[in-house]
Design a protein that fits this description.
Helix content is about 40%, strand content about 20%. The protein has ten helices and seven strands. It has a seven-stranded mixed beta sheet, with helices on both faces. Strand 2 and strand 3 form a beta hairpin. The chain is globular, with a radius of gyration of 16 Å.
């Protein structure tokens, strides 16, 4: 899922952008968690699962810390700036997420929080996201799983530097790119990168709309 951004993030960087991004390591985990937790604090899906804003960011930070460790270990996490201002998680066509038994220990703080119980009500949303992904990207593809830029750093073109280089990789490999969002304002922003909104699904009794976005190789 992708958090909301300032449109200036997308238009200040030329097409063949110098990436400047770096692959994150476990030493970046704390900063990565903070960037994503803050970026997704008001995300519609996160707000639906965790309506109590006072405790939301602490709970969602536990989620991103657990997932962030897996993303880093699987070489799927990328960041920009030092200290970290933006984070992107990209899944690659030739690689799937590898989880070892000991990795489940990192999920204990999340399991002991209110998140698992409250996430149950979002199961129809997750099913729709999964169905769209399978429908529109059932082939080797680059998948933008998560993207977040600190609010204080928006308007500097950082998100472009975390997106364009990977789309160029997809083009060079002649494969599609795919992402999804539950934030309507994100749709034209991703269309700016060549993504096409393939479908929008209003999930009943949730107030959430899922947007499926696919980009053909150029």
């Amino acid at each position: 899922m992708v958090s909301a951004f300032d449109f200036k993030d997308y238009i200040t960087i030329p097409i063949m952008a110098d990436p400047h991004y770096r692959k994150l390591t476990l030493s970046d985990l704390k900063s990565m968690t903070q960037v994503l937790a803050q970026s997704f604090e008001d995300d519609p899906l996160v707000s639906f699962i965790l309506p109590n804003k006072k405790t939301r960011i602490k709970t969602v930070a536990k989620f991103f810390r657990a997932m962030g460790r897996l993303n880093i270990q699987n070489n799927m996490a990328f960041g920009i700036s030092d200290p970290l201002e933006g984070v992107a998680v990209w899944n690659f066509p030739d690689k799937s997420l590898s989880v070892k038994p000991k990795d489940f220990l990192t999920f204990i703080p999340l399991i002991l929080s209110s998140y698992p119980y409250k996430a149950q009500k979002a199961r129809p949303i997750f099913r729709q996201i999964e169905a769209n992904h399978k429908k529109y990207a059932d082939e080797p593809h680059f998948y933008l799983d998560n993207l977040g830029v600190l609010a204080s750093s928006r308007g500097k073109g950082l998100s472009s530097k975390l997106i364009r280089p990977f789309l160029e990789m997809a083009d060079s490999q002649k494969v599609i790119a795919y992402t999804d969002t539950v934030t309507k304002e994100n749709v034209p922003l991703y269309e700016h990168f060549g993504f096409k909104c393939m479908e929008e699904n209003h999930v009943s009794r949730t107030g959430i709309t899922v947007y499926a976005l696919r980009r053909s190789a150029r």
